[in-house]
Backbone:
């Protein structure tokens, strides 16, 4: 009998990252050798997902500094191109991460989109292997697949063809210096902490890993360009049993006697009040009154009473309670959501068309893939206005057969991929190669 200790570090306040990390831990446990005593430790600085970890028999390490753990954007003072928005905070988080690794003494580090994790690993436990699980393949080859500007930048409003032309002619060095990739506060924190390794000029160098597990389909990328240490696993997300819906108002909306088109709206913690209220306004229009819907209004985004007071459509229900998204997705005609991987993959598993808005560059890429496939429409944040949302809703329902067919095809691709098995076996293979 031998013991293996695995540390898992990610943005544990974020629902998508946290649930993917937990699913990966379950895959590791499922495929572990019989003669192995497995210990999995999650780093946390405050998160609503801590109890989930304990309920599964895993451990928690409370790293410093302690945070509220509700919205990572607030905890980290996140800005465009800066996951952690000020140097002092970045320094404190990095110091806390290094202390955690020295205390845990892991045999393997697994981290998500968490450059602090890769940097801290290389500084204090350089001989330990690390594996990054990511929504997109963040290696330099990815620059050859980026063809449009992030929504946060003014050039994103140029025609798509013009953006494509610009990207084809941008020198590689200029592309690597893209503001969205820099995360300069983290770089400066590493330098202040004594970083002596390769220069940390962008996110690719900050996330260097022995193995990359990209939780998406290879069909969306030129997978052959990313090397043998990059595995496209397919989707990994919380696939709990299909929970029953207990809220009577939701059941009323979903009842078959309601013949109106049904729309589920969820921007999660990625959204903001203005974006959420634009969805409410869409349902108030004369054409929007023809639809019924469920709007999720998290307390951290918009007080539910404020959204309800604005709403005029009696066939729409706004709630701030937990809802079983998987169960709802399977009973609606359309999902309107942000571009987070977990939210999209839950919708894809239900073969439902969707309209999405990106609140960060990674989400834009996720939505562009679905739009190119033909199962979704992406709206930029700058165009996220109730009239434009309504126009796209009408477009999907006018061409519903085409969108639904593509959504079904995409679901079949997802169903054909066993991400849990791919991930579980890949991680144990990496551990046994030590």
Residues:
């Amino acid at each position: 009998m031998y013991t293996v200790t695995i540390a898992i570090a990610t943005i544990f306040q974020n629902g998508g990252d946290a649930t993917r990390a937990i699913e990966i831990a379950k895959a590791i446990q499922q495929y572990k050798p019989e003669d192995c005593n497995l210990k999995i430790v999650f780093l946390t600085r405050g998160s609503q997902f801590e109890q989930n970890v304990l309920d599964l028999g895993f451990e928690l390490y409370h790293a410093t500094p302690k945070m509220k753990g509700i919205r990572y954007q607030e905890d980290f003072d996140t800005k465009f191109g800066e996951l952690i928005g000020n140097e002092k905070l970045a320094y404190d988080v990095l110091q806390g991460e290094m202390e955690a690794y020295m205390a845990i003494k892991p045999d393997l580090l697994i981290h998500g989109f968490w450059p602090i994790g890769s940097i801290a690993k290389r500084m204090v436990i350089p001989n330990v292997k690390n594996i990054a699980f990511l929504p997109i393949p963040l290696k330099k080859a990815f620059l050859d697949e980026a063809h449009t500007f992030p929504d946060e930048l003014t050039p994103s409003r140029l025609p798509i063809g013009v953006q494509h032309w610009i990207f084809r002619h941008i020198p590689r060095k200029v592309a690597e210096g893209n503001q969205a990739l820099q995360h300069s506060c983290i770089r400066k924190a590493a330098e202040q902490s004594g970083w002596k390794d390769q220069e940390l000029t962008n996110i690719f160098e900050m996330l260097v890993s022995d193995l990359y597990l990209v939780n998406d389909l290879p069909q969306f990328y030129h997978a052959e360009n990313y090397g043998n240490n990059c595995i496209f696993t397919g989707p990994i997300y919380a696939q709990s049993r299909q929970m029953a819906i207990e809220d009577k108002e939701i059941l009323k909306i979903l009842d078959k006697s309601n013949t109106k088109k049904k729309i589920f709206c969820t921007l999660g913690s990625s959204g903001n009040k203005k974006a959420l209220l634009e969805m409410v306004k869409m349902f108030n229009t004369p054409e929007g009154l023809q639809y019924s819907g469920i709007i999720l209004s998290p307390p951290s985004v918009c007080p539910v009473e404020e959204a309800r007071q604005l709403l005029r459509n009696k066939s729409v229900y706004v709630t701030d309670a937990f809802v079983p998204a998987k169960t709802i997705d399977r009973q609606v005609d359309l999902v309107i959501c942000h571009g987070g991987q977990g939210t999209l993959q839950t919708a894809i598993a239900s073969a439902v068309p969707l309209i999405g808005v990106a609140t960060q560059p990674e989400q834009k890429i996720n939505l562009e893939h679905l739009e190119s496939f033909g199962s979704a429409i992406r709206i930029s944040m700058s165009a996220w206005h109730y009239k434009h949302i309504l126009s796209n809703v009408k477009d999907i329902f006018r061409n519903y057969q085409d969108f639904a067919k593509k959504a079904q095809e995409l679901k079949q691709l997802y169903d054909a991929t066993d991400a849990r098995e791919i991930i579980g076996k890949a991680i144990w293979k990496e551990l046994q190669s030590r």
